[in-house]
Amino acid sequence: MKRALFPILSILFFTQCTIDFEPDLTGFSDESKTIQKELERQLLSMNTPEAYRKHLYNLTTDPSFAGTAENRYVIDYIYSVMDSAGLDTRTYDYDVLLPQPGQNSIRVMTPEVIELDNKEAVYSEDPYTDHPDLVHGWNAYSGSGSVTAEIVYAFQGRKQDFERLEEMGVSVDGKIVIARFGGNFRGYKAKFAEQAGAAGLIIYTDPPSNRENTYPDGKQPDETAIQRGSLLTLDYYGDPLTPFEAALPLDHPETPTRLDPDDVDFHTIPVAPIGYGAADEILSRMEGEDAPEEWQGNFDYSYRLTGGPNLTVELSVDQPYETRPISNVVGVIEGSEYPDEWIILGAHLDAWSFGATDPNSGTAMLLTLAESLAQLSDEGKRPKRSIMIGHWDAEEFMLIGSSEWVEDLQEELMANSVLYLNADMSVTGPNFRASSSPSLKEPIIQAARTVAHPDTDRSVYDFWVANSSNGEPSIGNLGGGSDHVGFYMYAGVPSAGVAISGSVPIYHTNFDTFWFYENHLDSTFTYGPALADVYGLIALRFGNADILPYDLESYSIDLTTHINSITEQAGRDILAGTGILEEIEEIAAQLALVRTLLDGAANDPELTRVARRSINRKLIQLERNFLHSEGLPFSPWLKSLYASSDPYSGYASWMLPAYRYAIEEDRLEDEAFMADLHEAHHRAFERFSNSLTSIIRELEEE
């Protein structure tokens, strides 16, 4: 069912607030600063609520997920918007293995038969909830099968939760485990349940503490809300059948040979999600010992470890896997001087239903910005470097589209990419937040200082620090769970996730609708344009700077922090005698010198254009020095020795991840293993130091 495109609206009056702040504009000559300031002044008047609202409405007319006709409509819309605006737009097409919803059911069998709900309620207040194409709750890459068994409660289904069950003498062998969302990526709940011998897994949403504010009257989930999502936990990303190779269409002359699905380490047990209304029918009937205090939840009864022999549940999942076409859409504003240097902004385009917040709040923001940047280009104000805006397909199935693109363009990306900004689910409330590689931290802060916060007469930065715990802007480390993984942890591209956000308790449910967004998140649609301003400033500053404005000092600050953290986790200095600490001290001194030299380089009349070009090319490559060709001990696909996702939770960040793995797996006494780790890190820090030496030499010679 296609709803009419964006309707005629009453005019939304939007006044662009002026911020009294002189931007730093690191890396610009005095002459370039004057031009850049005027360009930024113009950009900050261009991104409007009307444009953002229009795109969000049009992207969310129908429920869609990757590989469907409805998702193809979203792809075509994105292509049309960017192409019409004047971006050089193309699709990158792949054929990948995607599960389909199929059928699933959960029933209490004894002491009485109760069919449990597995789809959200319909509400007259939200007209989207009665859409005929909405499907039941499901978890992609579940095993298929039917099992009837007793129940074991495993809290959040984390590795340590199953270990604790074993310590308490509770066996899950042959049982159906019920675990709540939270604490880790849902796929690891399935992985750890299967490893423990479970016959099936039910994942439920625990009720909110305040059930007076549930959907549709409030934004808390009602008892029928079901969180969908992928379960894939392979040690590589992208299409499960083509690891390390782009899954080019089956009829492409260079399409790779695909693995047999039977040879891929998919989960084999059936897994299905439910809402807390259905979970109540199971949890309230459990008769075993009380669960630990910290495992209790928001139902008004004691949560128990086992259901006992009188409670049995039937879990049935029939989930077919099919090879389906997906398409990334990439629009390019080609640089006027350095077209082979790429600033990449991106978000995924697929959803589990309507996806108003996830992903389309970010998608609509990027489309709004694309139109503004294209207009500036039409007026003769093209950036010196190319700006790419990418929309990745099949992210929800486990970062498939972006991973395929990174594998497909690996050589070009590693040679040319300046940065990647990820806008997944990025516009959901008033709170500015960011996670970043070191070199993008200060550029994010400087952009936030320049943009007005729509709820105040202050800047986004002022609102950010006013709501922080210590009066300082907090920028986290990148973990897993979104499309930056391939760029940052596989290809070594400096990356960040930047958002203006709030809570979205109906995440991945059928309630993630345009009606929800307008009524519960942002009725004025002003947060999207504000974030577009931030993304636009970062893109244009990197796009036009004479010397790329990376935050080099943060490398030395963050490396010291991460070394101290590893030492604390290990309980001793595991780097003593390796020479690595001395190398990091030398790198810190080099970084300080490079920063001093670069501060004057943009205005140095003796620094030729060729020399600036050479220095910038070396700066672009700095982050790549952390890549280890053999990959990490737990994933050959993840290659960064600096950062990775946590292989036990999927979402959290691991800094210096190879060392962290050695600690978690008790490998510190394995001399051969540790010697290999030390050697790999020594080579990485040596490469980083050599790159800095080359930059210093070139700056001093000029």
What does this structure look like?
The structure is a single chain. With 702 residues, this protein is of the alpha/beta class. The chain folds into three domains: 292 residues, 3-Layer(aba) Sandwich (Aminopeptidase), CATH 3.40.630.10; 182 residues, Glucose Oxidase, domain 1; 149 residues, Transcription Elongation Factor S-II, Chain A. It is built from 19 helices and 20 strands. The strands form five sheets. It has an eight-stranded mixed beta sheet with strand order 1-12-14-13-15-18-16-17, sandwiched between helices. It has a four-stranded antiparallel beta sheet with strand order 3-2-11-5, with no helix packed on it. It has a four-stranded parallel beta sheet with strand order 6-7-8-10, with helices on both faces. Helix 7 crosses helix 14 and helix 17 runs antiparallel to helix 19. The radius of gyration is 26 Å and the shape is globular. The N terminus is likely disordered.
Write a brief caption for the model.
This protein is an alpha/beta fold and about 700 residues long. About 35% of the residues lie in helices and about 15% in strands.
Rg result: 26 Å
Helix proportion: 25-40%
The strand order across the widest sheet is 1-12-14-13-15-18-16-17
Q: Which CATH architecture of the largest domain is right? A: 3-Layer(aba) Sandwich
Shape category: globular
How would you state the average pLDDT, rounded?
Answer: 95
Treating each run of at least 4 consecutive H or I residues as one helix, how many helices? 19
Distance between the termini: 64 Å
Number of strand elements: 20
Any low-confidence stretches, pLDDT <50, length ≥5?
A: 1-16
Question: How many domains, as an integer?
Answer: 3
Regarding CATH, which class of the largest domain?
Alpha Beta
CATH-derived topology of the largest domain: Aminopeptidase
Report the CATH superfamily of the largest domain.
Zn peptidases
Structural class: alpha/beta
